[in-house]
Write a structure and sequence with these properties.
Number of domains: 1
Radius of gyration: 19 Å
Helix content: 25-40%
Largest sheet: 7 strands, mixed
Distance between the termini: 51 Å
Structural class: alpha/beta
Shape: globular
Number of strands: 15
Length: about 280
Amino acid sequence: MESTVIKYSIWSIEDKRAVATISNEHGQNVQSQVVEIPLADISQIGGPIFEGWWPKNGKPRRVALGGVCLWDARWLIKFKKRGKGNEGARRTLALPYERKDAFERLSKGHQIEKIFYPLRPSEYHSLLIRWQGQKLKEFHPEKILFHVPIKEYHCFIARLEELIGNSLEELHSELDVFTDDIKNMISNNLGGLMEVVDFIDPMSCGAMEPEESFLWPYLHPEKFGFSADDIYGIEDLAELKLALHALKARGHCIPVICCVPTIPDAYAQKTDKETNVILF
């Protein structure tokens, strides 16, 4: 019997291994690399579904680098229908390529019907942060660099305000509340390890654009006081691409232990469940 292939972000998961093709741009050339990661099934312990190291012989170092994204695919724009035919397009602002498409539509004069945003953190956030807490307690690093990208999300909202010509103070305020909830979850799961946690701000350490900031700690760990040899990552599998891009760009290998918290991917499932809505 054929095994089932599970799609998760850019990864295909089958037979306890994840495979993806990673593209890296070098001037006019695009180079592609197939990456494979062995995975362990950890679904029986009530947490995420899979976990694994990249590279496969990876191990903890003295400094852990991790993060958690904020609003997921429930942060959603529904555009007004243009002419006859299908319903208006729906784009989540949580994914870079959909956010870019949404902003391009707005710049061309498309009109928004509704904006949805999450009421509270999801099961995805709970499972990811709980797993990170368990692993960090097991590894007990000297320092934990944690990226919670609140400044970046405020920048995305500001760009949206600019394009529609209206204030979205409700989104800014609710994002702050959501971020507080996430930080409380991190504190509750890390316990005494919070003494060695630094919530890092890449946009105050050289990253010029919000899209650039997610890669910045992997690309320039020295900006945060450490060398690449000091650091390992602890991430959602979807974020492993950060370490892979850093390896191509700067030649340093930062090992990452990663997990698959939920299937389907919370950042690809557009839903208006457990959301508030702003009408236009």
